[in-house]
Each structure stands twice: as C-alpha cells, then as structure tokens.
Amino acid sequence: MGLLTVGVGALAMILGLFLAGPAMSTPAMKGLGLFLRPLPSYKTTGKIAVRNALRSPVRTATTSFALTLGLLLVSMVGVMGSSTQASINNIITGGLKTDFVLTVPQGMGIPKQFAPDMSDMVGVQDASTIYYGFTEIDSERMVFTTADQDVSNLVNFEVLDGKYDIDGESLMVSEDYAKRKNVKAGSKLEVETQEGTRKIPIAGVYARNAMLQEMVVTYPLYEKIMPPSMQFALFILIKSNGMYDQATMKAQLQNAVAKLKIIQVATTEEFSGEQAELMNGVLAGLYALLALSVIIAILGVINTLALSVTERRQEIGMLRAIGMAREQLRHMFYLESILLSIFGTVLGTATGTLVGWALSRAMVPYGLVDVLIPWQMILGVLVGSIVVGVIAALGPAARAAKISPLKAIAD
Description:
single chain, alpha+beta
C-alpha cells in the first residue's frame, strides 16, 4: 500500500462522502434521533428537531460536509502525529543502547575538528561519534551515516545477511534498501567519491533501524567520500561503565564539553523527549491551521440555522401560538444543531482516522515503526461536537425566540 494509492483512495472517499451525503443524512438523522428519545422534552422539541433535519437532506448534508472535511483533516493529522511521536520514542529508546547522547541544536552539526573524543574519559565504557554524509550511489542521491568506533554495543544493530564490518572500505544497507534495489551482501554499488566513481562492496544487510538511515559506510570510506570541510557529526553516543550514578555522570560530561557551547548533554530518555517536543510544536501549528477550517464549518452551521429561522418564520409563529414556550423553541434549535454537528463529526472523524491509519501504514517503509490511533482525542472531538452544536445554535435560537407569534402568522 503506497502513499500514492492511499492519496487517491482518500480523495475518492471525500468525493464519495460529498455525493452520498444527502442519501446518508436521512438514516443518520433517524438513527441519531433515537438517542434523543430519553430526553424529557423529546415529545415536544426532539421530534420536531429531527423532522427539521430530515426536511432537506441536501441542505443537511451540505452543512455537515464542511464540518466533516475539517474534522477529517484533524483526525488524520492526529493519527499521523500520534504514530510519529510513538515511533520517535520507540526508535530512540529501542534503537539505542546508550546512556547519554551528546547533540547540537536542530539543523546543526558538529564539525569533525570540534567533535570531542569521549572514549578515554573516566566513567565511559563505550563512545562513538555518528557522522552523516551524502553522495551519488547507483545514480541516486543518498544520505548515509558512519561511526568512528564500533557501535555494536551502542546501537541495536541486527545483521541479517553478511557481517558487521567497520574496517576497510565497504558499506552496509538496510533490509528496505536491499529489497528495493534487489541487492545482498557481496553485491557492489557505484559510489561517487572524491577520487571519482568506485564500485564498493556491500558487507552486510541490517534490520530496519531509523537511527542509521538506509545506509552505513565504514569510516575510511566516509573520509574518501566527504571532504574534511563537509564532515559533520550528528551526535555522540556514550555508554557509562557504572562508576558514577546518572546525575553525576551527566555533570561530568557537561564539564568535559563546557567549552563547546553548542553541544548539549542528554540522557537517552531526555533525548527522546526533546525529539517528541519538536513534533509537538509541528503538530500545534498544524492544529492551529486546521482549527480555522472547523471555525468556518461552525459558521456554516450558524448560517444554515439562520436561514432556517427566516424560512420557517410562520411555522415558528404557529408553534408559539399553540403554546410552545421560548425556552422550548430554543431547545429545538439546539437539538437540530447538535444533530447536524454530530453527523458531520462522526463522518469526518471516522474517515480521517481511517485515512490517517492508512497513511501511517504506508509510511512504515520510511521509518515509521508504530501506528497509533489517539482514542482520547477522537472521544474528545465527539464530545466537542455537542458543544459546537449548542454554540452554533445560540444566535439563531435567540433570534427565533424573539419572533412575535401574531406578526409571524400575519406575514
């Protein structure tokens, strides 16, 4: 299931919801009306609210569709965001066997000449600096990583084919790359180096590990590919030998890199939390933008109810004339608005959750390791739709309650 397939399927579902909305609204309104029956006022206001929602299926569907579309996007982003956050945590805590990670601010790298060697520091059992680079490999622009020391004790590195080789000039590829390119241990890839294009052997194939990207090259080969001015470290992995407790060891590391102001020391858990915070910031921005679409949808519900008040002016006058109180009239509009809101919310949330799940599954080959559905958020959206319904009906309901029965009938 590729991203293109999911995208086409999502567009088809949205188009289907728009076209089938009027046909779906009638049974949906009748079904939702069943939940209103326990209300004490159902016989007076509930029945009329359901009938009003059923009166024009096209209008009901059109009004709800804006809310459906907005909440579809919210739910889709929610599922993908939750899956990404869970994956980040799993990738870092599950992909690393380290106690500490030395990093720099997002988007920066540590120049090789400034990357500190922590392997001889008291309290350190293993340490390795992870570098990144890029070049043309088999006519494809590839990003790869390398380590200046053996990382088998620092990274969960599972070799599926061949061997883990850190010497000489060779490379290793992930199982996803091996399947995509139909290569295995022993195959050779054309790699663009500073000396020209060379055929480099694949030493081994490793299990998917997002911390290592799709390709790992040996450090000697890395120096042949990347000129010194472009050799930057992503982070430094450190495993403690247990001589000091975590707080003391962290303080020791901070003192050791104090002169290098940009380097930050974090435990593996703190490093995972920092990456999650970055994702939270991105999601907050997306939710703020999507909130605008929901607000527009609420304005659509308000507009529909306002038009309904104008069109049903005589009907409202007759209801008031035969004894319906203003409070009952307001209650009728509240229920009608809630029915419209719940209809749009259920369709949008269900479709958005399904699309988000499908997109998350399609992203698994690209490093997304967990697909998580945020049930609490979905439940909150459903409960919020009732509140939205009441808020949307406040203005039209108040306007309807002020209508004079005699003037309305005379019109």
